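Pasting as-is:
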Amino acid sequence: MTTTWAQRRKDRIDDLAGGRSLTSEALRRLRRDPVALTGGVIIGLFVLVAAFAPLLAPHGPAETFPQLQQDLRPGNIPGPTAGFPLGSDQLGRDFLSRMILASQQTLLVGVLATLIGLAVGIVIGTVAGAFGGWVDTLLMRITDVLLAIPSLLLAISVAALAASPSQTTVIIAVAIVGVPIFARLLRGSMLAQRNSDHVVAATALGVKRPAVVLRHMLPNAIGPVIVQATLTLATAILDAAALSFLGLGDADPGRAEWGLMLAQAQTYLDVRPALAFLPAFAIIAVALGFTLLGESLREALDPKGRR
């Protein structure tokens, strides 16, 4: 206890003496936060597996094997065996390879959906927060309507409008869910910047309004939005898996995706529960990793939390 108090006191003195910035202080706190480190390790492993999935997977996602198919029966699905550490799925395919390759699809959908939602939300939030008036009122009322609908229900409604389910429809549906979250958060940050000293000074010096918004207001207001993107990425992964589970995702049987694998395994729960448990565990673990890191990042960047 004494050592901890002494270390905190020393860190506080160093902050006051050295003028440590908020960013460097946040990084220092993240390095010492076991929750942030746990989330970072989970995310790091997930990203590495997803990035090198084609190299790590022993076989293709649609490749079938006679030695596995010959043991397939209505009440039996082969478990771990030589050359197949996680055994077979219901069609005689290597389950380990499908789990590894599915991580790439999950990362792709989650990141693209979050980036699209972030980009559109930044545009809406910037326009609403910078100019106000009837533009702000109109955009925020539309945002309120979207926020009033539960996120998963909104994603299902958007995905159901597509003529045929695909990976693209899942990305668009999940991206639309994130737009109002980013827009309202950025709009609030922009409003807080409108009367700040540096914005008033730039306006008094005759700087044009677009330059004030893009150079002075937006850079200082976007921090909380970037943190929120980390948390939204976890929600995007869950929503994408849910859409695939409900049959609104990519129906291509040759493409491995955790939500689709979980849906296909429901029929075989009493035969081989691992077909459902492993994809479910992977989805939960990845979403938890992004949530832990996002919450830790939010606390680390909060000036009120500095000690």
